[in-house]
Specification:
Immunoglobulin-like, 7-stranded antiparallel beta sheet, elongated, alpha+beta, 416 residues, 2 domains, 23 strands, 22% helix, Penicillin V Acylase, Chain A
Length: 416
């Protein structure tokens, strides 16, 4: 009985770790706008970004990924010509060089980012070389409105081109028409449905998709979300599935600074706007703005224009804060129950463990309802003399001595 219990618990932990690299990739091209995004779901939360300027025979590019004991592993990126890629893990499949292609012992996707401009260029690279360490598939898109999912089929690389003006990939083989159990993936279906039902695309819409498909928990949280404008070179980052705080980057400006390697968590302060809430009606004579965040200095911007073409700004130092509540999470509770049952009810333990295995084996395709852990510091400032019966927009920018600044998403309110 004891050995059986250990085996069951080991399987349970294995199922948790197997879901540690579930990711959601999505792209769309509509009305002269081309956006592409990735939710990077990984147990390692040490997200990094690497900017490499152009050199002889190589384009300038940025990679996003994680730092580990083996160094930096990139999982998505974009080059200066608007060629974007993002990868996602797949069930393991043996890769054979059945067509005797020249062997490429490095990452083919890096060669593509260095040398290619279009999706067709990328396909040519994959058609020419054989990469032995194939462990997933990649969505690749260019600024000309083309997108393709590249994965390993029965005996060679296969290319699944977009059949509409959007494309989605998660963690099942798109080319597999036999084993269709993964087609019930919540993340895949949700992203497809949102893209299908909206005629316009924007950073806001893609943020919504990322939020609706993000993963949570201690084993496979959405560590980093990246949204790219392939034409303008603009990139938005969200860390630790907090879709209330964004870091905005311009690829061309960053490449001008030379090669640099940065920790993504350093630019985020667990920022979240509190009040006035979205769409709230407030008295015009006096308004109290409140938000959560770990930074010591902020800028409050408010405007009558949604694009903040004209705005007022107030610089703020840390003033006051209150403690906030946090969710403890299902994993910790499960561990306590497990220990109790191990000592008291071994038969019940087997049933309980089996339920956990079934539950967590599909966690990468389910939607949880746990908010990210926002800061426990609440800041506030009261301002006066707003115009009555007027629509306002407001946001908070972090003011710290660093190269980049994160900021909150925009809230709106109406005065009376």
């Amino acid at each position: 009985m004891k050995n059986l219990t250990i085996i069951i618990f080991t399987i349970f932990l294995t199922q948790l770790s197997n879901n540690a690299e579930a990711c959601t990739l999505f792209w769309s091209s509509r009305n002269n706008t081309i956006l592409a995004a990735k939710n990077m779901d990984w147990a390692n939360t040490d997200a990094r970004m690497l900017f490499i300027p152009a050199s002889e025979g190589k384009f300038g590019r940025v990679y996003f990924g994680i730092e580990s004991q083996w160094g930096f592993t990139n999982t998505s990126g974009m080059n200066e010509h608007g060629l974007w890629y993002a990868g996602a893990s797949l069930p393991e499949r043996t890769v054979y060089n059945t067509h005797n292609k020249p062997r490429w012992d490095y990452e083919l996707i890096e060669k593509i980012m260095e040398e290619c401009i279009t999706v067709e260029d990328a396909i040519e690279i994959f058609s020419t070389y054989w990469e032995p360490h194939w462990d997933g598939h990649s969505l690749i898109a260019d600024k000309y409105g083309n997108c393709v999912c590249i994965e390993y089929g029965e005996d060679d690389v296969v290319y699944i081109h977009n059949q509409a003006d959007y494309q989605v990939a998660t963690n099942f083989y798109l080319s597999d028409s036999i084993n269709n159990r993964w087609y019930n993936c919540y993340r895949y279906n949700t992203a497809n449905e949102i893209l299908k039902s909206n005629s316009e695309i924007s950073f806001d819409l893609f943020r919504t998709i990322a939020d609706e498909t993000h993963a949570e928990g201690s084993s496979n949280p959405t560590t980093l979300t990246t949204i790219h404008d392939l034409i303008k070179g603009e990139i938005q980052l969200y860390y630790s599935h907090n879709f209330n705080e964004v870091l905005k980057i311009n690829l061309f400006e960053e490449l001008e600074k030379g090669e640099h390697y940065m920790k993504c968590p350093d630019f985020f302060t667990r920022l979240k706007l509190c009040s006035p809430e979205k769409g709230e009606s407030v008295e015009s004579n006096k308004i109290t703005f409140t938000w959560k965040g770990d930074a010591s200095k902020y800028y409050l911007h408010y405007s009558k224009n949604k694009d903040f073409s004209e705005y007022e700004v107030v610089k703020l130092n840390k003033n006051k804060y209150v403690k906030a509540n946090f969710n403890t999470g299902i994993l910790g509770l499960s561990a306590l129950v497990f220990l109790f049952l191990f000592k008291k009810r071994k038969k019940v333990l087997i049933v309980f463990s089996s339920i956990l295995i079934i539950t967590f084996s599909h966690i990468s395709c389910k939607k949880d309802n746990i908010e990210p852990q926002f800061s426990n510091q609440l800041h506030s400032i009261t301002l006066e003399n707003f115009e009555p019966d007027t629509q306002y927009y407001w946001k908070i920018l972090v003011s710290e001595a660093q190269q980049m600044q994160s900021e909150s998403i925009v809230y709106d309110f109406h005065t009376y």
